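Just wondering, does anyone understand these tokens?
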Amino acid sequence: MITFIICLSLLIIAYFTYGSYLERLAEADDANVTPAIRMEDGVDYIKLPRWRVFLIQLLNIAGTGPIFGAILGACFGPVAFLWITLGCIFFGAMHDYLSGMLILRHDGKSLPEVIGEYLGMGTRAVVRVFSIALLVLVGAVFILSPAQLLSTMVSSVTQQVWVYIILAYYIIATLLPVDKVIGKIYPLFGVALVAMAAGLLVVLLSGEYEIPELTTLHNFQLDPEALPIIPTLFITIACGAISGFHATQSPLMARCVASEKKCKSVFYGSMISEGIIALIWAAIAMAFFHGPAALGEQLSAHGNNAAWAVDVISNTTLGKVGAILALLGVVAAPITSGDTAFRGARLIIADIFSYDQRPILNRMIVCIPLFVIGFGITLVEFGVVWRYFAWANQTLAVFTLWTIYVWLVRRKKNFWVALIPAIVMTFISTYFVFLSPQFMGVTDKLISAPLGVISTIVITFFAYKKAYKNNPK
């Protein structure tokens, strides 16, 4: 397990090294009064202790992403370790920390409003619609997936009844002040998510299982032509490496953090933690099923249902305790991400119209249409919804990365930390649009890849012009 140990060590070391460098780059200073203190309103702007904000942020961004995505990504082979590690350190954690600081400096405004400040009002309008659509998709996905799981665990209650129960909870959690439900319950679920991963880490280190080493970049998928490593791996493993959804959740905690120096642990630290969770799940998935090829065969035999793999692995390796943690990790985690997705959509809409969210009636006026649309999406085939959600997730990260790039250029800081990830993810997202059958379906890579390159060049030029407009070199 040399590869696994090296990757795990790099993730931990990165928090204290690269994370600290980014903190200096952002010029985090506790002398700056945060929005939680300056703008306290008893609903969304509420000062919370760092440990609580960290656990809430971790649970908000995690959901089932670092579990399901890592298991499905493990089918590509040990190359998944490489993307999780390097992606998390230089792409995802950087994205989460600098976007979190950027949002904090803009009074905790929602992501589209901050993007508009740097990429222009036209881009802001696009991202407003895109972000709301993504968040409602997230909410719908995380209504349906736990409902499906719960209906199999409790056969006496139908899936549709679980949908109604989860939806009712979402309405309550979204309407209430952040410290009433989210601030009290979510840290407990966050602890369960971490405990589940820690238990599996002990299993891996006990020597009972053999983790494949990164000796080749071979694609172990059953149909590697249909699922090439580039760009599919980068879309499959999102939350464990980089995810645009995270930046939509940052305003929630940017409105609750008490000082700028705490942001490194809240934003960079939570993403590193998620990367570790994803690394552990990718490793245990390959080790438990005796290699990525066998893992792919087993998943294919069970309808590519990652929840099935979680259940089997947890119950076999962790026993009864594992079953309880699996329930919390696979059911509670998506539910908690789902309700904060709807909450994030509410905040974006409120920011667009400068609509006061202190009166509960105003919150209901914004929320009810979102829940109606979300419920409607649950009636669509789950696989269709998930595929578009995954692409939208990474595409939103592209907008955020370019925003960070422009911000750094205008502050005359080291913009390369954002520029390289922005170019890479722009190519991945555009190439996927041209290549994937769910979009344009240009399966000839000699055509789709150059189209992705051309699109990336055009977008890079646009961002460059925005960065240096009225800002001489």
The longest helix spans residues 306-353. The chain has a mean pLDDT of 88. DSSP finds 19 helices and no strands in the chain. The CA atoms of residues 176 and 364 lie 10 Å apart.
